[in-house]
Specification:
Its cofactor is FMN. The chain is an alpha/beta fold and 303 residues long. 35% of the residues lie in helices and 19% in strands. It has a single domain, classed as Aldolase class I (TIM Barrel), CATH 3.20.20. It is built from ten helices and 16 strands.
Length: 303
């Protein structure tokens, strides 16, 4: 009922761990697969290790999470070992996520991560909380998107998904540029930029002042982005952003997604959230007489 083919890669269900949540080590990624995920995305890796931003880096409420972790990671050289170790223990599809400060650096990191047994390469060009370090995110620039994809395609034979930002007003047009440049898929979306102020302290809560909003509050924004992108391109979409329930996941597929990323829902519903969402999807599909996800993919565009 939930078996999915994405870029000719079989997934036993369409749920994948989104980048940034529990995707740090082989053990944590295996734990997610054991708890029902159809595939996993590693936490984004960079050329050199990064410590990220100073604390506090995260705050959560019933409706949203706000984080400015700052893309902390052990660097690509250490990350390669974790990726290989994961694949030694699991047959689940593995998405390798990378970020960089220049198109040339993207190519360097892409070449390295492609030596690991990843199935798909995700290019994170849209993190909203490191602009003071890297400048304007590449996700806002058609030229940058085209240049990065071209340079990465020249050094890897892995299928590429480019991760776009909901902060871009023309996200569908940018997805079209990515497709024309040779991207094999679109990941939509990253977190949306936001902040929170402590009224008593009279200052921003996060040390970085602002960060990325995820969780249920992001869901309707992400859903609209997926809907718009599906209408603009002919390549598949990994939909991520606030998915917490089986109904959320099915809505993303009806908007046009093929895979559905789940991240902050781990905070709200525990590491068993993947199996919970699977059961909820199956129950809704049974109640609605839906035999397969192919029947409903993009169906919301017909209404």
């Amino acid at each position: 009922m939930l078996h999915t083919s994405f870029l000719s890669i079989p997934f036993h269900n369409p749920l994948v761990l989104a980048s940034g949540i529990l995707g740090v080590s082989a053990a944590s990624m295996n734990h997610v697969v054991d708890n029902g995920a159809g595939g996993v995305t590693v936490k984004s890796l960079s050329k050199e290790p990064r410590t990220g931003h100073a604390n506090p880096t995260m705050i959560a409420s019933d409706t949203h999470m706000l984080n400015a972790v700052g893309l902390s990671n052990p660097g690509i050289d250490h990350g390669l070992g974790e990726l290989r170790m994961f694949k030694q223990r699991s047959t689940a599809p593995l998405i390798g996520s990378i970020f960089a400060s220049t198109p040339e650096e993207f190519a360097d990191v892409a070449k390295k991560i492609s030596t690991a047994p990843i199935d798909i390469l995700e290019l994170d060009i849209s993190c909203p909380n490191v602009s003071t370090e890297f400048g304007e995110p590449f996700a806002y620039s058609p030229h940058a998107i085209l240049t990065i994809i071209k340079k990465v395609k020249a050094v890897t034979d892995k299928p590429i998904s480019i991760k776009l930002s909901p902060n871009a007003w023309n996200i569908a047009a940018l997805a079209r540029v990515a497709e024309q440049a040779g991207a094999d898929a679109i990941t939509a979306v990253n977190t949306v930029s936001g902040m929170q102020i402590n009224v008593q302290a009279r200052m921003p809560v996060l040390h970085n002042k602002y960060g990325g909003v995820s969780g249920p509050a992001l869901f309707p924004i992400a859903l609209k982005c997926v809907y718009d992108i599906y209408a603009a391109v002919n390549i598949p979409i990994i939909a991520t952003g606030g998915v917490t329930t089986g109904e959320d996941a099915l809505a993303m597929i009806m908007a046009g997604a093929t895979l559905v990323g789940v991240g902050s829902a781990v905070y709200y519903r525990g590491t068993g959230v993947f199996q919970k969402i699977v059961v909820e999807m199956q129950q809704i599909m049974q109640d609605e007489g839906i035999a397969s996800l192919d029947e409903i993919r993009g169906v919301a565009h017909a209404s």
